[in-house]
Amino acid sequence: MKNLNHHSILLIVTVIAAALLLSACGIISQATASAENATAVLSSGGAGVTSAAAGNAYEEAFSDRDLSGDYDTAGSAAILLNGTTATTSSEAVQVSGGTVTITAGGTYVLSGTLENGSIIVNVSKDDKVQLVLDGASIHSATFAAIYVVQADKVFITLEDGSVNTLSNGGSYAQIDDNDVDAVVFAKDDITFNGNGTLRITAEDGSGIVGKDEVTIASGVYEITAAKHAIRAKDSLAIADGSFTLSASEDGLHAENSDDESLGNLYIAGGSFVITVGDDAIHANTLLQIDGGTFNITAAEGLEATYIQINGGSIQISASDDGVNAARKSSLYTPTFEMNDGTLTIVMGAGDTDGIDSNGNIVVNGGTIDVTGQSPFDYDGTAQFNGGTIIVNGQQVDSIPNQMMGGGAGGMGGGAGGRRP
C-alpha cells in the first residue's frame, strides 16, 4: 500500500464495501448464475434466441462431411456379405468366418447379408473410416452388428434409396474389456448420414451407443430396443432425418457421469415418432431444440438440467412429467426456456406435471398448450415475457404454479411475470 495515496485507499475501501453490500443482497450471485446459463445454451438467455445464435449452434454441431453423405466410389473398397462370411479384395479387411475387421482408414461399401457376424472397425486413432451401407443386412446373435473399437471418427452412410437392417439376438458375449451393449457400439465419434433407411432391432441392450459424440445428419431410422434407442456419452446432435423409435427406456439419451459439462443434446430438425417407457428425450446437462416435429408418448417427454426450445412442433403425451428441468448437472440452475415453436402437452391423471422445473421457467415466445391437473410446477421463479400459454383450453396471462396453490386456482393469477 505504500505507493497508494489517500484518495486511492479511500476508493478501494468504497469498492470493497459496495461489493460486500451487493453480495449480501444476492445480486452478484444472481448475475453470475444468469450469465452462466446464458453462456451455456448458445442463446441470448432471457431475451430469447437470435438467428445468429441458432446458426452458430448448427455450425458447431455439424461439419461439412457430417452433412454431405458423399463418398469416393472409385476409391472405395467393396465388402460383399454372403451369408456366413464375406469377401473383399481389400488388404485392410480381415475376414474370419462371420467376423469382418477393418484395420485401415478409408471407405468401405457393404452389401448383402451376414446371418451371424459383426463388422469391427479397429484402426489408428488418427484414421477416419466411412462405412457405406448399400442394402446390407447384418445380424449377430451374441454381439454387436457394428463395433467401433478405435478410430478418429467413423461415418456410417446410408446409400440413397437403400434399406439396411442391423440386429442383435438377445445377448452380448464380450470380446475385450469394453462393455458392448448395443447393435451399433462406438468407442469414438460416430456420424450417420445419407438418404437411405436403417432398421435396428436390439433384442437386448440399446440400438445405437456412442461413448463419445454421436451425430446424425440425415436418413430414415426405425429402431426398436430393449433399453435406449440412441445413447451418447458426450453429445448427441441431430440435423435432420426421420425417426421412429420404440424402447423400454429412453428414446434419445445423452449422459456423461464423469464430466457434468457434457451429456448434451441438440436437435436442429427432423421428424420424430417416439414411444418409450421412460424419457423420450433426455440430456443430463443441456437440451436445445431448434426445430423438427415430435410426436411423443412416454413417461416423461423432455428431461435435462437446462431445456431450451427455439422452434419446432412438439406434441407430448406423458404419464409423469411432460417436461422436467431437473438438476442432473450441478453446473446450471434447472431451467425451462421457451423462445419459439409449439409445445402441446397432455398429461395423464394423478401426480403429474405438464412442465416441472426444479428451478426456473422463462417463456419469451411460442405457444404452450397444457392439458392436465398440474400444468406448471416450479421451485424458483417464472418469467412470462411473450408468446401464448393455454391451460386446459383457457389462455392465461401469467404462469400458474402448482407449488403455490396449483390446479385451476392458479390460472390467470399465480406467480411469475405478466406479459408486457
Task: Tell me what the structure shows.
By secondary structure, this protein is mainly β. The chain has 2 domains: about 150 residues, no CATH class; about 190 residues. Helices cover about 10% and strands about 45% of the residues. It has 4 helices and 38 strands. The strands form 2 sheets. It has a 25-stranded mixed sheet that branches. A 13-stranded mixed sheet has the order 3-4-6-8-11-14-17-20-23-26-29-32-35, with no helix packed on it. The radius of gyration is 25 Å and the shape is elongated.
List keywords for this structure.
25-stranded mixed beta sheet; elongated; disordered C terminus; mainly beta; 420 residues; disordered N terminus; single chain; 12% helix
Helix content: 10-25%
Strand content: over 45%
**On the 0-100 scale, what is the average pLDDT?**
87
- What number of domains? 2
Quaternary structure annotation: single chain
Secondary structure class reads mainly beta
| Poorly predicted spans | 1-53, 404-420
Number of strands: 38
DSSP helical segment count: 4
Give the termini separation: 51 Å
Main β sheet profile? 25 strands, mixed
Radius of gyration: 25 Å
What is the global morphology? elongated
How are the elements arranged and paired?
Layout: H1 6-25, H2 27-40, H3 51-61, H4 64-68, E1 77-83, E2 86-88, E3 93-96, E4 99-102, E5 106-114, E6 118-122, E7 128-140, E8 146-150, E9 153-158, E10 163-168, E11 182-186, E12 189-194, E13 197-202, E14 206-210, E15 213-216, E16 220-225, E17 230-232, E18 235-238, E19 242-247, E20 252-254, E21 264-267, E22 271-276, E23 279-283, E24 286-289, E25 293-298, E26 300-304, E27 306-309, E28 313-318, E29 321-325, E30 335-338, E31 342-347, E32 353-357, E33 360-363, E34 367-371, E35 376-378, E36 382-384, E37 388-391, E38 394-396
Parallel strand pairs: 1-5, 4-6, 5-7, 6-8, 7-9, 7-10, 8-11, 9-12, 10-13, 11-14, 12-15, 13-16, 14-17, 15-18, 16-19, 17-20, 18-21, 19-22, 20-23, 21-24, 22-25, 23-26, 24-27, 25-28, 26-29, 27-30, 28-31, 29-32, 30-33, 31-34, 32-35, 33-36, 34-37
Antiparallel strand pairs: 1-2, 3-4, 37-38
